[in-house]
Amino acid sequence: MSDETQSELIAIKLDSERRREIDEVKKRMEEFLREQINVTNELKLVVKGQDGLKERFEMGVAKTLKELDHKFDTFMIEWGKKQAEDDHRDVRLNNVEESDKRAHEKYDGINKGILWVAVFGGIGFLAKLLITWKP
Question: What is the rounded CA–CA span in Å between residue 49 and residue 35?
Answer without folding.
Answer: 21
